[in-house]
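Hi R.,

As promised on Friday, here is the backbone we talked about, encoded as structure tokens. Could you run it through your design pipeline when you get a chance and send me back a sequence?
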């Protein structure tokens, strides 16, 4: 019997989330070296990529008079309205050039449906529409996941919570993540992840 493979899920290390990008996470480029090192250490390696059409419903610019980082209600619930970011075909949507994308087995693109955002690597923000990642991991025999990337309190947190809900053993390596920390969102994310049984390391 082969041991169950562990998977590394690398969340959204894209130009728009790194310094100089449209939705830059402070220190977002500082995690590239530790993430690249981790990519050498795991059997199963998945990258996620935020991938929005122009005029996406989560963009503040799609809601006349709305300010970036304000909150609105969309058909699936509350939604933070973001600056335009990770628009399909733009440099901002590309992976950071220093990320070792060649190491990945799979790239999951999310948020490409114009009417619903997708923070999680597993489900869109309606919490129902799957990305296909769960099926991929199960057919690879994976039961343990380590999550790294951007941003701790949004896409990493949502991915970790969904993974725990789906029955995976989940670890988040905080030393290989960075947070937006919008109005205390980082501490709230840590509490939610711990409550769900997610292990926070680093």
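Update: got your reply. Pasting your designed sequence below so it's all in one thread:
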């Amino acid at each position: 019997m082969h041991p169950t493979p562990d998977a590394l899920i690398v969340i959204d290390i894209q130009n728009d989330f790194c310094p100089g990008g449209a939705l830059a996470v402070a220190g977002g480029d500082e995690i590239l070296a530790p993430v690249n090192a981790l990519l050498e250490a795991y059997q199963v390696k998945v990258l996620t990529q935020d991938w929005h059409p122009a005029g996406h419903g989560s963009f503040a610019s799609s809601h006349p008079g709305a300010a970036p980082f304000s909150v609105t209600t969309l058909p699936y619930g509350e939604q933070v309205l973001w600056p335009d970011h990770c628009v399909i075909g733009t440099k901002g949507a590309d992976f950071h050039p220093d990320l070792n994308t060649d190491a990945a087995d799979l790239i999951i693109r999310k948020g490409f449906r114009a009417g619903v955002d997708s923070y999680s690597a597993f489900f869109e923000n309606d919490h129902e529409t799957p990305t296909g990642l769960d099926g991929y991991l199960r057919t690879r025999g994976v039961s343990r996941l380590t999550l790294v990337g951007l941003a701790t309190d949004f896409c990493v947190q949502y991915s970790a919570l969904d993974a725990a809900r789906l029955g995976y053993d989940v670890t988040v390596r905080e030393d290989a993540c960075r947070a937006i920390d919008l109005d205390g969102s980082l501490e709230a994310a840590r509490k939610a992840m711990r409550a769900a049984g997610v292990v926070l390391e680093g």
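One thing I noticed while checking it: The chain is about 20% helix and 25% strand.

Thanks again,
M.
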